[in-house]
Design a protein that fits this description.
This protein is mainly α. The protein has one domain. The protein contains 16 helices and no strands. The longest helix has 63 residues. The two termini are 28 Å apart.
Length: 442
């Protein structure tokens, strides 16, 4: 039976509704992870380090899709909850068209500035050339990457999370198969890895675009729409927390790389790259749940169903608590096997990776609450509070921690930084949830 946004949700129904989004986000995270595995094992540490240095740039670009997708889906779901179907479709369509135009502009500037940008990130010599090569292959598919991130949220609003899952799984499988073929079989190295990712992004971005253009059964459709600056601004402000999260993660990654170069050299950057790849797979479960439940929250907020809103918050906190414990335990048990997959060929690098990964695993006990807290206020169309949470969690607290702790604890201080940042963020989330309870009546 099809689950609709207007349904009364139980734990089982909520998990069933959000599960496609969880799996979808995990498969999305596989793109960079698969590239990292094949490049590290078949091309070596230098190309692998190059991917870790240039990847923050593409995370920032993808953040545009997350911003418009999460902020726009909250706006569109609220309009549907208010019964304004035509306006919801026009708003949705306008946001997609604006994204396509923005992607073209970004691609042009990307080709022009990829080399100086790579140099700013610390790339030199052979690593610099690898950064430029990888970047120039991915830049033409920027539009698909942005759309893919947007459609993950809009597929849920369209009450087709399963279709969104199938498309994302298809894109993920495409990336895995082509990485194996291009890198391991044809020995194309970094070029093959970049080509595999570019093609998989086309699968993930173009198929949903075709669906929304031609589907007759979807509550959301691409229609003729004029530019609406007010709706665009509202969507961007509302989704600014997700934009802030991705940009902050990129800035913090760059800062981590600089600190690791100081305390551990190139191996430190490579080890951190492995840790971030693996962490993102686990964190994706929290992101996927938050993306999946947000349209339900937005719909009930728009329909003024305060009882259902309160129930959704309570159930979400229970679910995230269970996820947090399970993921922390699992990640600790898998620290050595997963590190072996990436850097098992280098014992010194392997030992450093395992040590840092086991420490960072404990951040999973806290991260889910912070990710959901930010998404919760985005769903309530309060982009300001959501952005504050994201800014403090992903930028201010982490920057302060990674600058201060290594001076006291050395390399271990870098690994502990993320835990300290998540701990301070939890207190901020609790404060806002308590403070805004009377306003939103949850």
């Amino acid at each position: 039976m099809k689950i609709q946004l207007s349904d009364k949700f139980t734990y089982s129904k909520l998990l069933k509704f959000t599960l496609p989004s969880i799996i979808m986000m995990i498969f999305t995270s596989i793109y960079g992870v698969v590239d990292g595995i094949f490049v590290s094992n078949f091309a070596g540490k230098i190309p692998f380090t190059a991917i870790n240095l240039i990847m923050p740039v593409f995370i920032i670009v993808g953040a545009i899709g997350f911003m418009i997708g999460t902020g726009g889906s909250a706006l569109v779901a609220k309009l549907l909850g208010e019964g304004k179907t035509q306006k919801a479709n026009q708003t949705f369509s306008m946001l997609i068209y604006v994204s396509l135009i923005a992607a073209v502009i970004i691609s042009i500037f990307g080709f022009i500035f990829i080399r100086p940008l790579s140099m700013m990130l610390g790339a030199k010599g052979e690593i610099l050339e690898c950064c430029v090569l990888y970047g120039k292959i991915l830049i033409p598919t920027t539009f698909a990457f942005i759309l893919q991130n947007e459609f993950q949220a809009f597929m849920i609003v369209a009450e087709r999370p399963q279709l969104g899952l199938f498309i994302t799984v298809g894109a993920g499988v495409t990336n895995i198969v082509l990485d194996a073929l291009f890198v391991a079989v044809f020995d194309w190295g970094l070029t093959g890895a970049a080509a595999a990712t570019a093609i998989s992004q086309l699968v993930g971005g173009a198929i949903p675009l075709f669906y929304f253009l031609h589907s007759k059964n979807s509550p959301l459709k691409l229609v003729k729409a004029s530019f609406n600056g007010k709706s665009l601004t509202k969507a961007c402000i509302n989704g600014s927390s997700e934009m802030m999260t991705n940009i902050s993660m990129s800035v913090v990654t760059i800062l981590y790389n600089f600190q690791l170069m100081r305390f551990a050299g190139d191996d430190g950057v490579a080890a951190y790259g492995v840790i971030m790849y693996i962490n993102f797979i686990f964190i994706s479960a929290f992101l996927g749940y938050s993306i999946g439940v947000s349209p339900v929250i937005s719909f009930n907020y728009g329909a003024q169903n305060h009882g259902e809103l309160k129930k959704l918050l309570k159930m979400s906190l229970v679910i995230i608590s269970a996820f947090s414990i399970a993921m922390t335990t699992t990640s600790i048990l898998l620290a050595k096997p997963l590190s072996t997959v990436f850097v098992g060929y280098d014992k010194e690098l392997f030992d450093m990776t395992v040590s840092g990964f086991i420490v960072s695993c404990f951040s999973f006990l806290l991260a889910g609450f912070n990710i959901f807290g930010s998404a919760f206020f985005t769903a309530l169309n309060n982009g300001l509070i959501s952005a504050v949470i994201s800014f403090l969690r992903t930028l201010l607290f982490q920057v302060a921690a990674v600058l201060i702790l290594p001076e006291i604890f050395g390399l271990n201080g870098i690994w502990f930084s993320i835990i300290v940042a998540e701990l301070f963020s939890v207190f901020v989330v609790i404060m806002f949830i308590i403070k805004e309870k009377s306003v939103y009546k949850y």
